[in-house]
Automatic annotation (TrEMBL):
Residues 284-478 form the Integrase catalytic domain. One of its GO terms (molecular function) is DNA binding. This is Transposase. Residues 3-74 form the HTH Mu-type domain. The lineage of its organism: Bacteria, Pseudomonadati, Pseudomonadota, Alphaproteobacteria, Hyphomicrobiales.
Amino acid sequence: MSTWMTAAEIAEAKLPGMPTTKRGVAVKAQAEGWDQNPALARARKGRGGGFEYDVRILPTLARMALLQREITVGVPAVTDPAAPEGAPVNLSDRAARERDARLAIVDQFERFASGLPRLRHMAHLQLFQDKYNLRSLRVENWVLELVPTISKRSLDRWRREVKEGTINNLAVDRSLARKGTGVLDQANDGKVRTAILALLAQNAHYSAGHIRTQLESMFGATVWVPYTGAQPGMTKGVPLPPVRTIQNFVKALKADNQVVLTKLTDPDRYRSTMLPSGVGSLRHISQPNQLWQIDASPIDALCTDGRHSIYACIDIFSRRAIVLVSKTPRAAAVALLLRKAIMAWGVPVTIKTDNGSDFVARDTQRLLLSLGIEQDVSDAYSPQQKGHIERFIRTFQHDFATLLPGFVGHSVTDRKAIENRKSFSARLGQTEAETFDVKFSGAQVQGYADKWVATMYDQREHYGLQGLSPVEKWNTANYQPRMVDVRALDLLLMPIAGGSGDGIRTTTKFGIRVGNRHYATPHILPGTMVLVRQDPEDLGHVFAFEPDGGRYLGEGTCPEVAGVNPAAFMKAVRAVQGETLAEIAKPLKRMMRELAKGPTPIERALQISAQQDQTNVVSLPQAVEAQTTRQIDAAIAAMDTLSGNRPTIALDDATQAEHRRLIAAYEAEEAAQEAEAFEAVQAQQAAFEADRAAELAASLPANVEAIETEKSRYLRAVRIDRAIHAGEDVSPFDAMWFGQYQTTAEYRGQKAVHDDFGDIYLS
């Protein structure tokens, strides 16, 4: 309301007790000397000049009429600044509306009273009460419905509540005053109420009739409630309320106990929508690739080649995402998802996963360990611990999968609704693909998913990123990613041998066994434990590493699968392994010869023992007692006869010389017999081998030659070598073959053995 009015405006308002013409108002103002009070009259600015007057100069009835026209009870009141902020508020909707209505009345009363400064406070209260109750004031309907009449006492009390900042005391919900006093609330010390809650938690589909039947079975047809007006503790029996009363009570009970009932009947919904959850728990993530979260879920759409799953990865810092569409959940899909993400973003520091079998599989753990990535596994049944990827998958399902032909809904209810778009007769005989109009294969869905992520999701502003898109957030970091050579990454992604287990094999003389195949390893000696990886696109080769995967040992080849001549390949393997062994054995043989020239092992041990410091402890002589028996005495007598008491005969020089001759002749005869026996054995062995060779040659076809062994080739080389040194004729073919054979590792290995064992090795 304007507080200053001209004479024309006062006349136009037609106020009680005031002239209705401009001239009449001017005469009254001059007669009463309005313009003599500078606080209530001032010169009018603008065209025409004159005076304008403060409404406070008008008579009380006129001012009251002005206030009635200006005030509208129902305009929302402004809360008193003195009211404490953050005070706990737990009001029902009815109570909040009652409070707002009283605040609106108090606010307009203050305006009404300020316009009548000449009246006292009680007069203000009386006038406002009368005007309000007589509907002389403009009052909005919602205020009249809640507060149809007022009293001076109530109005004055409301004013005090507002000034003291306790505006919530103005809230009134008369139903709350009676809450908790009904029969079902108090019956049997609250046990009836608890039983109803338990029944609802057990089966939310119980009707009021079902519940009443169960209550009657548990408590009988009569329940006991407190006896009002009697001594404390006294009760009276009342009939069990009817179904309608129980129906209303159950409705209110469900509303008041929604959280606890949801927790008991639908734990997943409670965890998703009601469980207290913090905001910003990952604000310590300050750069890209510091933390990834990955998870998987079946796509809510069918493909022409069956239903697929989505494997998704999200970078927590930027919210960038990558998806992989896979036919079946398995560790290989996790590996491919990581390859795709690492090639695009670089290597992360930590990856958060759940404890699903594909995420905690040995292959997945081995891959993460090889790449230097820390894995953080969530607790079982705790999806809230990786909420970012859970929300992304929900976004993917609702924003992307919903648009796909073949969409089957997000729940069983959705699926049924989609099926019902066609009548039962129309669906009869149709395949699932025809029912849901499936058009895309898994590969096509993958292509569309990649485009959706790149052009829509990654470009969309995110609330959690302060309005930035994931791509913009990534670019603000000025981050330099850690990249991995694609060849090394592909090798680390290769499955381990056998497809399960730890992939550890022990090399044997046949090589490395994988399944029913043997992979020969020229550079890996038998007995070596190796970690084996196999290229799924080349089953003829495997790659061997140390058991921890830290060093590459060599390649294994299965000649049958690789398309290599097995005999020629194994010959080459033996040659390479012979060279390897010769290099290893060469310094060992040298040391063995040096050891043979020196003291024997027992002499070395005694020498070391003699060099050790002796202890200062000296054994003192002890008194001993001789042990004697008849047999001991007899033995002593015999030894005395053989030693001290036996006469010694001295030999002359001729006799000693004859003794030496006889000993030498005996030793020579013994050596000749040994040599003769050895030659006989050699001759017998040679004859046996000759007969065996002739027999073998006779049994072979004419166009097949007998297989040469390593030793037979070396024997041939020895014969040629000795013939050359003896000056005998050697054919050019044998000489050329001998020259080439001398350059092979086989010859060097055989010659080393020959040198160690002499010609006995040739037998």
